[in-house]
Amino acid sequence: MTLTEEIKQFLKSKEGLRLKAYICPAGKWTIGYGNTFYEYGSKVKKGDTISKNRAEELFENILYQFSKEVKSLLKTELNDNQFSALVSFSYNVGIGNFSKSTLLKLVNINPSNPSIKNEFIKWNKGGGKTLYGLTIRRQKEADIYFKEININNLPIA
User: Fold this and answer.
1) What is the CATH number of the domain that holds 121?
2) Pairwise CA distance, residues 36 & 107, whole Å
3) Among the options 15, 39, 77, 119, which is catalytic?
4) Is the CB of residue 63 less than 8 Å from the CB of residue 79?
5) Phi, psi of 12, rounded to the nearest 5 degrees
């Protein structure tokens, strides 16, 4: 299971790039591509700034950490699209929320269960309010999860 380039670009487009720390809709200090913490666990704080190169590095490192954590929670093998959609989801809602979610439970029971789509969609709130951007994001993640692997893009052995 590996992350697709599509999901990396999707995450960057949804998170946006900010080189100066700001407060996100969830009320946390955030920097780069939606990062609330740095690789070694320290939290982003008011006044933090980074370069574009550092933001790219941070994004790749944090994404790698999320990938490892998502893999550790899975009890079934998934295709790259399914895995990528779950990493995107957890990158946004946090690994703790993902680990307790009905979404993960359903994936581990039957990764083809169509009700998984509804579980993505339920996570469209920020600060207790339904957010249009999150609704669209969850829909796209669900679409990627159920997207068939394009055999024309597979590497030749």
Assistant:
1) 1.10.530.40
2) 27
3) 15
4) no
5) -60, -40
Tell me, what DSSP letter sits at residue 79? Answer: -
Contact between residue 95 and residue 69 where contact means Cβ atoms under 8 Å apart: yes
Structural domain boundaries, residue 36: 5-148
Q: Judge whether 157 lies within some domain.
A: no
- What confidence tens digit (pLDDT) does each residue in 70-127 have? 999 999 999 999 999 999 999 999 999 999 999 999 999 999 999 999 999 999 987 7
CA distances from 84 to 9, 46, 47, 73, 106 (A): 11, 31, 32, 14, 16
Would you place residue 46 in the very low, low, confident or very high pLDDT band (cuts 50, 70, 90)?
very high
Catalytic residue list contains 6 = no
Say what the pTM is.
0.87
Say if 153 falls within a structural domain. Answer: no
